[in-house]
Every structure is written in C-alpha cells, then in structure tokens.
Amino acid sequence: MRRRLVASAVAALSSLMLVAGCSAEAESDPLVLRVASGLSSQNLAWTEGVVPWMEEVEKATDGAVTFQSFTGGELVELKGETHALQTDVIDIALFLPTYQPDQYPLVEVSMLPLKQSDAVIGSKAWKNFVESDAEVYDGMSFHEWEFGSKCRASDLVAGPLCRS
Predict the structure, then answer these.
(1) Is the keyword Protease in the record (predicted)?
(2) pLDDT tens digits along 32-48
C-alpha cells in the first residue's frame, strides 16, 4: 500500500507543481518520504542536486510532501540503496551506479581507457549510453539492458536512471 502511495505521489508531482498555487491547504498529514544515500551529506550530488529538489517539492506541494533524509550510511550503507528500495526501508535513493559494479557491471564502459580521453569525453559517453535508444544487445538499448530489470515501477520509485 505504501509503495503505491509513494509511486502515485512521485508520479503526480508534475501535476502538483502546476496546481500547487490553486489548491486549498492540505487537511491531512503530509506524506513523508524517506530519502537515503550512503554518500556524505557534503557530497556535491546531495547538496546541489537532492537537497534543492526536495526543497522545491516541499514548496510546490505546500508541504503536502516532505522528506526525512539519511546520508553517510546513517540508515543505508553505500552500495545498499537498491536493496533498501526494494525492501521498503526507504522510498527514494541517491546512489551512483559506478560505486556498485556488482549490481551494474556495464556502467564503467564509458571509462575504459582510450588513446585520448578526459572527464568531458567520459561524461558525454555516459550520457550517450544512458539516453540512446540504439540496440546494443538482444534488441535492447544500453539503458534497457543495464537498468531495465532494476527499474520496474512496482519495485522502485523511478529516477533519472529509471526512465520510461
């Protein structure tokens, strides 16, 4: 039940953002989502990505959706985020697949050594891998092949790697 509620809340976020200014004050308790990352609270992805996003969601929903944050392995250790999502320990996770090669073995393909490379070339390669619809294996794109089985809507709240 909670999983459906969370999935519905996240899916409806876009609509809520559009109508937040027109809605009446929430009469029920806010939906509190547990957000976790094994990364430090000082990590740039957290401070410049997740925190501003949570603040925007809370503002856009007039407090109807709030967050309880856990970082630095406080609730979920680094590399344990996917399991924590699947077992309802948390509702949303910030994790970097490159830190989990046992679960996401192909994510480092864009970091293979080349004759000439740098961080920009590697970042663009990663972006192209994730966004491309080109078939790379058995009729699947890189994204479908690497992340598809881990991104079922019934198991996870969709995020940037779990796109439809």
Answers:
(1) no
(2) 999 998 888 998 888 99
Q: How many CB atoms lie within 10 A of CB 30?
A: 14
φ, ψ for residue 135, nearest 5 deg:
-70, 130
Q: ∠ CA 146-152-157 to the nearest 5 degrees?
A: 105
Question: Looking at the chain, which residues constitute the CATH 3.40.190.170 domain(s)?
Answer: 1-20+29-95
Distance separating alpha carbons of residues 151 and 80, to the nearest angstrom:
16
**How big is the chain by its Cα radius of gyration, in Å?**
18
Render the chain in DSSP notation, one character per residue.
-HHHHHHHHHHTHHHHHHHGGGSPPP-SPPEEEEEE-SS-TT-HHIIIIIHHHHHHHHHHTTTSEEEEEE-TTSSS-TT-HHHHHHTTS-SEE---GGG-TTT-TTGGGGGS--SS--HHHHHHHHHHHHH---EEETTEEHHHHHHGGG--TTTS---TTS--
* CATH code that applies to domain 1-20+29-95: 3.40.190.170
| Side chain identity, residue 59 | K
Task: Answer yes or no: are the C-beta atoms of 39 and 45 closer than 8 Å.
Answer: yes
